[in-house]
Structure prediction request, 393 residues.
Amino acid sequence: MSGDSSQLVGLDAGDPAGVNRRPLFGLDAEALAAQMVAAGEPPWRGRQLAEALYRQRIAELDAITTLPKPLRQRLAAEGWEVGRPQIAQVFRSVDGTERYLVQCQDAETVETVWMPEGDGGEAGDGSGQEIDDGDETGEAGKRRQRATICVSSQVGCAVNCQFCLTAKLGLQRNLTAGEIAGQVVTVFDRHGVEVGRDRMNLVFMGMGEPFLNYENFMAAVRLLVTEVGLSPQRMTVSTSGIVPGIERFAQEPPEVRPKLAISLNAPNDQIRSEIMPINRKWPIEAVMDAVRQLRLRSHERITFEYVLLDGVTDRPEHAVEVARLARKTGLPVKVNLIAWNPGPGIEYTMPQPEAVETFRQALAGEGIPTYVRRPRGRDIFAACGQLKRTVEG
Ligand code: SF4
Prediction:
């Protein structure tokens, strides 16, 4: 978060070419106040701006009428704009899932997915018991919306999981805090989400490895908690096992720390290193050592995401190994099983439905809470591991 007031003062020329466009979205109330003070305004103008950007979700500077018109004009002349990412394309699945191509200011695009009624993995599985869900209608008698939004943290990804389409893009760039939080606010806007009434889960499981963009990822979480008003207990971040990132995450205060999911995907180091080369750097035991540093909230569980690949990770004996691994961690864990979603140019095969059920039963039989994630939006390439900015719907 930049508090560098020189960004605002000293700029007296407009920027018609748009070279020096400066997004306000992404700055927290404190940084906005600092910018206002630097512009000769009282600090409370920063709070007004934060209200407009994050609570009222105003997307155009000129529409922020709590600021006097001359101030809006001056800010615009200095290159400032709301600068929130925008939905450029929508792909709608037969199951109601929507996949968005979200465009940043530099025209780079990432993907965000809206899954109505949760995704069967992060919601509706007991993982959110710590929060009072209330009844199905809000105070005004309006039906509550329930959905899970899958958010991207990087353009592409450098981790190179062999089963993942995003990996094919390589890493293009990190997203800024504003671009990460902006995906959520933009999608809220599209669906008329009322924070506080509607039950929204966020999963940071879209394109990218959040812990390789740690600063911006956590800055986005702080914005979503502090400025937008969301609970971190309704957010889950998934990592491929970046040990320094997990160790840092374990130090975050509970009031801004999302829940943690480890993208495990294999029963042992040998198979994991084959399908997730990152495992050669940080093997399973090193990841678990880092995870043990987290101070969990009551009822909180660590999630193991487990992608089932036909003949590679879906054998019954693998389930027994995963159960042993889960017990060995000494942590309260649950397992989310994901039947692998096919993608062009990836050589794996989808598991048989019977293999998925056998695997689930084997794990559950070992006393591990296990859920099968309903595949969402497969027909629009919105399902797990399918995010590659595909433009066919
Ligand atoms: S599964 Fe996640 S971490 Fe692995 S390559 Fe894909 S986006 Fe990156």
The pocket of iron/sulfur cluster is lined by residues 157, 159-161, 164, 166-167, 207-209, 240, 385 (CB under 6 Å). The chain has eleven helices and 14 strands.
